[in-house]
User: Which sequence fits this backbone?
């Protein structure tokens, strides 16, 4: 794994910092509980958030990008602790009511690209280090200036049957975000 990490780390850093500095306008920390005994911790940079008002419909569509680095950890009785690192780029579509004060609820959907350092964790063979990740989430933005974001997500990663087997992996995720 050390050789893989030495090759992968520079690529992940470039991927995470690909957006121009002025475009980064937030950060989020996520913790997830995966299928089996796989746990996940992710730090994401949030970029280029724009609101698109739906005239007369009472809803906004917000589009933003998440550039994330994650750490997965599992305990296997045979091999002990196993770890995977994951870099992802995900565009997210978020729908929320147009009112501007107090707590603002939202529903979101994201579909992105993930690169893993290993293709297996615990007793699960993922068949590839390249995966697509989709998530469906709900949450609230807690202030009128939209600085704090609390959310829950269900995320599924798989390689879209490009390699077999394709068991994928699912995570239940709690997320806290802060906008600059």
Assistant:
């Amino acid at each position: 794994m050390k050789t893989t990490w030495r090759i992968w780390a520079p690529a992940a850093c470039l991927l995470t910092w690909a957006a121009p500095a002025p475009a980064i306008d937030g950060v989020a920390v996520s913790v997830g509980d995966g299928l089996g005994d796989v746990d996940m911790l992710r730090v994401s940079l949030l970029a280029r958030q724009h609101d698109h008002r739906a005239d007369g419909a009472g809803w906004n569509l917000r589009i933003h990008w998440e550039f994330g680095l994650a750490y997965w950890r599992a305990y296997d009785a045979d091999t002990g602790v196993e770890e995977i690192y994951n870099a992802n780029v995900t565009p997210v579509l978020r729908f929320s009511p147009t009112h501007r004060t107090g707590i603002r609820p939202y529903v979101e959907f994201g579909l992105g690209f993930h690169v893993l350092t290993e293709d297996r964790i615990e007793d699960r063979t993922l068949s590839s280090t390249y995966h697509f990740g989709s998530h469906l989430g709900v949450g609230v933005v807690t202030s009128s200036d939209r600085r704090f974001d609390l959310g829950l997500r269900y995320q599924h990663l798989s390689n879209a049957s490009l390699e077999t087997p394709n068991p994928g992996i699912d995570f239940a995720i709690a997320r806290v975000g802060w906008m600059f």
About this structure: The first helix runs from residue 2 to 16. Helices lie at 2-16. The chain has one domain: 2-179.
